[in-house]
Amino acid sequence: MISMPPIHLLEDHLINKIAAGEVVERPASAVKELVENSLDAGATQIDVELKDGGKKLILVRDNGVGISKDELKLALARHSTSKISTENDLYAISSFGFRGEALASMASVSKLTLTSRVEPEFAHEIGCEGGQFSERKEAPHPQGTTVALRFLFYNTPARLKFLKSADTELAHIHDILISMALANPQVGFSLTCDQKKIFYVKSGSHFKERIFELFGKETEQYCYPFQIGHSGLEAVGYAGHPQISRSHNKNMYFFVNNRPVKDKVLHHATMEAYRDLLMKGRYPFSIVFLKIPSEMVDVNVHPAKTEVRFSQSQVIHRLVYEAVRKILEAAPWNQAMDGARHAPTHDTVGAPLAAPPSLPFQFQSESDVFRGAASSAPTEIRPTHQSPEGNISQKQIQFGQTPYASMEVLGQFWGTYILCQSDDKLILIDQHAAHERIGFEKLLLQYKEGEIPSQHLLIPENFDLNPSQTAIVGPYLDDFKKMGLEVDFFGGNTFVVKSKPALFKKLDVKSLLLDLVGDVLEKGKLTSLIDQLHAVLARMSCHGAIRAHHLLTLEEMKAMVRELDQYHFTSFCPHGRPVSVEVTRYEIEKWFKRIV
Questions:
Q1: Which has the closest alpha carbon to 199: 388, 399, 355, 50?
Q2: Prior bond to 284 cis, omega within 30?
Q3: Quick check: 127 and 112 in contact, CB under 8 A?
């Protein structure tokens, strides 16, 4: 028989250590909590100093309202806060902090010193080491507060051993400050590590200035502002050109009522807006600020307050999706390719990086989307954003920017690329990607109009799958009929194709179904292909489009180029590959040393 120890109350110092494990996971967590406290205190300048990536020292200094000498010790006690008083306050939280746990948790796992001054008092200081307080004493300090944490996790070896290298911990802190600086352009921030200036942005910036300071002035060419709102909800921010996508999602910034968050709803909505513009495994540069009534969001669902829960997630998803998608449709690079320019429905839509009128903040400094880290960054810190990959510079070769209507078709190269010229540019168009995008847009339009026309085959086509593939494909055959593709069982594991979409009479149906099998094995069973409409139509377009090494007549090439002007997003295929690239005469002449 199993015997259990008697139930007993935990001691306060043990409770604090447990709480610290939830609130403070690493130095970046401590920096986040301390910076949020500074913002709540109305600071306009916040300075962060580190030693050994925050493992030996984290010091956060601000010029906020300060803490009175009589409240210093209370500020380090568990569940002590000035930000909420009643239960109702939990449903209308406007501050970053509200639980009163962070300082107490940090004090239990570090050697903490808290120094603060409230005008016109003298400054006072109190220390706490492993939960044990020192006597309060006077100390020299300007208006505001400084919190110093030394030797974080010194008394919790299990937690200490899981910390990464100093560079890794510093990179996490840097990312935290980038988000804070984005959301608070009126506040100046600085980051110093081992007496080296890593990051600095001045206070009082406008939002546009803060963007430039953080990500480089090149963002004006590649990012477009959006603003959409209704029923008390508003989404504002910036969407980046697919050309500056990355292989990670660190370039995707989300804020709810100015609070940096990681949220699946916002992430999915943004990715859906880019769904046929990015290759698999690529993520856009995007900044999304969501403003919603406090009663529609619960910020008290995660110990670190990095996650939120929406009461109407579908409404939020639709709002963010529409905001990002509409700006991508109206963006100058897309309109240029569409030929027929549609006037933006909002003054800020499509305009190069003018600050959205309702953004309550500004930014500044250090991460560079296109040119690497800011000049103040040390070489050992890898910038969050770097210039697009490739051996040939961004300035030499561009993804399609020229309207197709202005292009003169010269011929075909390798039976794969359509060679064109326009003014002083040489343009290569990938014929498969171009035909794929045209077919996708046509299929999507036909589906929205009620029916994708199909053509019955005079001689039905048969093909076989293995038993496991047959079991996966079977439930989706009815959905394919709604997309103009009629496939039936013929017995055993044999299928018969009776009709195909009229646009793609040479559609490779077996390859299409095998791709579906792969998707199901990777993502799990799909409730309906209609729910994955864009992905399925993109697959159909890919398998139905002309291939590389398919010879085209000059008239066929001209017709394809003309047709590209009739649709949106024709600078990319539905899977995100570029349709065209272009190089200027100037660059070509440099290659041949005509220009030095």
A1: 50
A2: no
A3: yes
Can you read off the two tokens belonging to residue 554?
A: 């000059």
Rounded distance, CA 127 to CA 112, Å? 6
231 or 349: whose pLDDT is higher? 231
Q: Walk me through the domains of the chain, giving residue ranges and CATH numbers.
A: 12-163 (3.30.565.10), 209-338 (3.30.230.10), 454-502+505-544 (3.30.1370.100)
CB atoms within 10 A of CB 165: 11
Concatenate the DSSP letters of all residues of 182-251 into one string.
HH-TTSEEEEEETTEEEEEE-SS--HHHHHHHHH-TTHHHHEEEEEEEETTEEEEEEEE-GGG-BSSSTT
Residue 304, Cβ neighbours under 10 Å: how many? 15
β-bridge partners, 417: 413, 430
SS3 of residue 392 by DSSP: coil
| DSSP state letters, 489-501 | EEETTEEEEEEEE
Give residue 71's identity as a one-letter amino acid code. Answer: E
* Residues listed for the chain: 596
Say what the pTM is. 0.73
Q: Is 309 exposed, middle or buried (0-12, 13-18, 19+ CB in 10 A)?
A: middle
pLDDT tens-digit series, residues 430-483: 999 999 999 999 999 999 998 899 999 999 999 998 888 888 888 889 889 989
Residue 30 near residue 310 (C-beta atoms within 8 A): no
Helix, strand or coil for residue 161? coil
- SS3 (DSSP) at 588: helix
How much is the pLDDT for 388?
36
CB atoms within 10 A of CB 320: 28
- Beta partners for residue 462, in sequence order: 496
Helix (H, G, I), strand (E, B) or coil at 254: strand
Band (pLDDT 50/70/90 cuts) for residue 246 is confident
Q: In sequence order, what are the residues at sequence separation of 6 or more whose Cβ sits closer than 8 angstroms to the Cβ of residue 157?
A: none
Query: Distances from the Cα of 526 to the Cαs of 378, 448, 470, 473, 534, in angstroms?
Result: 48, 21, 15, 11, 14
